[in-house]
Every structure is written in C-alpha cells, then in structure tokens.
Amino acid sequence: MTDGKYWNERIETMPRDKLEEYQLEALREEIRFAYEHSPYYKRSFDAAGVGPDDIGTLADLSRFPFIDKVTQRDTQGVGSFLGELCAVPEDDVIFISTSSGSTGVPTMSPFTQKDFDEWQDVESRWFYQAGMRKNDRYVHALNFSLYVGGPDVIGAQRIGALCIWGGTLPSERLIFILKTYQPTCIWTSPSYAWYLGETCKKNGVDPVKDLSIRKIFVAGELGGSIEGTRRAIEELWGAELYDFYGLSDIFGACAAMCEAKDGLHIAEDHILVETVDLNSGEVLKPGTTGELVYTTLRKHARPMIRFRTGDIGYIDTTKCSCGRTHGRIHVVGRKDDMFIVSAVNVFPSDVEAVVRGQKGITGEYLIRVTEKNYTCQYEVTVEREESNTAETDEDVAARVQNALKARIGVKPAKVLVAKEGTIERSTHKAKRIIDERKLTYHI
User: Fold this and answer.
1) How many whole angstroms separate alpha carbon 430 and alpha carbon 380?
2) Exposure of 316 by Cβ count < 10 A (0-12 exposed, 13-18 middle, 19+ buried)?
C-alpha cells in the first residue's frame, strides 16, 4: 500500500534499460519453466529446434513458435483436465476462468495461488493509477460467472476501497444501488456505461446531479479509447473515464489508462509485448501497427509463450508524461472484425470515432458488410436525434458519409438514418457489425 502517486513506484518508473534487464531474466525463467513442465511446449520447442538456452536477448524470442486460440482449444483437456499447455498439476490450481466462447469453444485460464495474488496486485496498480483511493466506494458491475474480470474487485479491496460486488444486475437494480449507496467509482463496458446513463435520465435520475460517480472504468470494447465515445460518456455522467484492457488468456486487466489518457500502460513486468505482421509474422518495431503478441513472464499455471491475440495495434515504449516507463498499447481493432474495402483496412473503431463526434445524431450505429460484384463494401446506420429538426435525413446521411470518407479513406456504399431509439442498446458488449458476405476473405 502507498500514499503516493504510484502503487509500486520502483516497478512502474523503472528505467527502460533496467526494465528490459528484468524482462530478460524473467523470460529465461519462464521459457525454462514452460519447457520443463508443459508437454506442449516441450514438444513444440523441440520441433522448432529451440530451447531455454537459446534466449540470450529479448529479440531471441522471435525464434520461438507462436500459439493462438486454436492451440488452446486443441490442447485443452488433452492428457489431463487442464490440458497440455498447462505446466502445473491440478492440485496447484486454485482458480479458473473461461473465455466467452464468442469466437469458438470457451477456453479455460488456470491460476496458481501465486498467479492469482500477483494478478490482483496488478489490478490494484490499475485502480490506483486511475485515481481510486481507500475513501472511494466502488461498485463492480461486471459478470462474476467464470469471467476473468470478476475477481478484479479484489484489487480494489486491496487498496482499501469500500467494494460493492454488483455483478450483472438488471439496470433498475443497479440504478437503485447507485442512488442508495452513492458509490464514486464503477466498472462496466463502454456500451453499458452509455446505456445505463441514458436509462437513468429516462427514469428521472440525473447521473451528474443525483449520483456520485466520479470515475468510470470500462473494458471489453474499444469505446473507452475512442476520444469521441469517451468524452460523450464523461459528459453524460460528469465523471472521468479510464479504459482497461484484459484477456481471459492471461488475466483480468493487463493494461489501463493513466491520467494522460494516451494509450494504456501494459504490465511489462508480467507481459512481454511484440507486434508482428499479420501475414508473415515478422516482428515489427515499436510504434508500428500489427498484431499484438504477448508472452507471460511470471505465470506458472499456464505460461503463454508468443500468444497471438488477434488484436491489432501498436506499443509506444517512450516514457509517459505521468512518469511511468511501462509501454502504452494502442488497440485499433480486432483482426476478426477488420474488413477491407478498396485495399483499405476498415475497423469498427474508425466508424465509431466518426459517429461519436458528429452532432445531431445519438452516437449509436450499426455496420453492415456486404459484397457486390466480388468486392467488399459497407453500409452504416445511424440515429438522428429527435431534437435535430434543422436537417433532413438526407442531410445527415451526406454529412456522415463525407466524414467517414475523410477519416477512413473509403466512404460507405450507403448511410441509413433511423429514428432515435431504433438501434438496439446493449447491456454488455454491443454487436456493431453484421457481416453478410458469402465469400472467404483472407487478411
């Protein structure tokens, strides 16, 4: 526990060269542990002709093979309940979470007691970094059912905050909690933060005047790092919003915003970050956009060596204005969601950045990806605010279409304008894209 600016000043502000020395030593130990205790890594490393003694520098990691979600699914349950990727016996595992299974069969993520305790220390770091202190009241409005973000409430408790284990409550019940207990902090998804604020107003509750929320933590979607979305939610609640980022494959929040709000600091004392070319797998320089690849440095239950996340982004390793030296990741989208129009990579986050920044529309949107004459194209549906009587639907459509062309480089085939409230609101992760293509596209 600390009373200063940092939760762990020595780790968070470690000079870059010292941090990389720390990473190299931890990487060597992690590779050796994985090789000696995980059947999969032993077989995989041997097949690739590499081993623990081949890590002389951090760059040597590029010689080792990748893993991905398919690897997890193929090895899960093989040889033991926990599978061939795991490096400890089941008796050493005290907790498992699972992925949502939104892109396939759910995958387990096991933790030893050491893994779990170190994970929660990182969560405390993120909460503290975002300004949470022991005099805060915090409502944890995340799913507790096998979701890796559920236990992160323990990180807030370690700070000393008064914690309300809300979970995925009906909106009316959560609003009751917000009114009755007047918490100062809440964690949910960007879509739900917006939906909940709108629901408050519809029920005669002003989120700014009637509630005490001053900090909102969001995760699960990119909205928190899209400036237009972030500012819209902040204005709705009269609160500061901080984006968190996690993967069930590693642990809850692996990265989070600081007060500078210029990317998300990733816990580089626990995770080594590479960015690779989507097609060749070649390692790219920091600052170059590609697929983010993570290697755990301290996790024992299931080491993750060169895990291809499917997230597209880059890492900035320059020192942040907040004084922290750990790199900041900037995620621009998912490889699964990206589509290509006229040789331009288009991400839903690009569309959201435009829609959230336009006046006279609600900020809700839906993308429909189609094909015509064997080429990919996209349509965007937006909602016109009821109060916007100065424009016709045609005016709104033309304005949004031009803004999308300016931001992305290719305009949508069509912009449809719907009445306010037409697009279904989300109480968790919003489904923003409908892909109606029948062809197989390779990225």
Assistant:
1) 15
2) middle
Q: How many helices (H) and strands (E) does the chain have?
A: 11, 19
DSSP string, 94-152: EEEEE---TTSS--EEEEEHHHHHHHHHHHHHHHHHTT--TT-EEEE-S--SS-TTGGG
Q: Is 295 exposed, middle or buried (0-12, 13-18, 19+ CB in 10 A)?
A: buried
Residues 326-364 pLDDT 10s: 999 999 888 878 788 877 778 888 888 899 889 999 989
Q: Is 146 exposed, middle or buried (0-12, 13-18, 19+ CB in 10 A)?
A: middle
Q: Give the largest CA-CA distance in the chain.
A: 70
220 touches 428 (CB < 8 A): yes
The gap between the terminal CA atoms of the chain, to the nearest Å, is 46
Burial label, 106 (beta-carbon count in 10 A; 0-12, 13-18, 19+)? middle
CA torsion angle for 33, 36, 42, 45 (degrees, to 10)? 50
Query: Taking the model in full, what pTM does it have?
Result: 0.84
- Helix H or strand E encompassing 265: strand 264-266
Judged by phi (left if over 0) then psi (alpha if -120 to 50, else beta), residue 323 lies in left
Contact between 120 and 155 under an 8 Å Cβ cutoff? The reply is yes
For 318-388, where are the E strands, in sequence order?
Answer: 328-334, 339-341, 344-346, 361-372, 375-384
Closest CA to 297 of 110, 49, 109, 32: 32
CB neighbour burial string for 134-145, b if at least 16 within 10 angstroms, e if fewer = eebbbbbbbeee
The token pair that represents 342 in the structure block: 């006229």
Q: Which ranges of the chain have pLDDT less than 50?
A: 440-443
CA distances to 179, 187, 206 from 203, in Å: 12, 21, 9
Q: Sketch out the chain's domains with CATH numbers.
A: 1-335 (3.40.50.12780), 339-435 (3.30.300.30)
Classify residue 92 by its DSSP letter.
Answer: G
Strand partners, 266: 255
Six token digits for residue 421: 């409230």
Packing angle of the helix pair 190-202, 171-181 (nearest 10 deg): 80
Angle subtended at Cα 329 by Cα 31 and Cα 157, rounded to the nearest 5 degrees: 80
Write out the two tokens for 190.
């960007």
Q: Given this model, what pLDDT does residue 428 score?
A: 63
Of all residues in the chain, what percent are helix, strand and coil, respectively (each to 5)?
A: 35, 25, 40
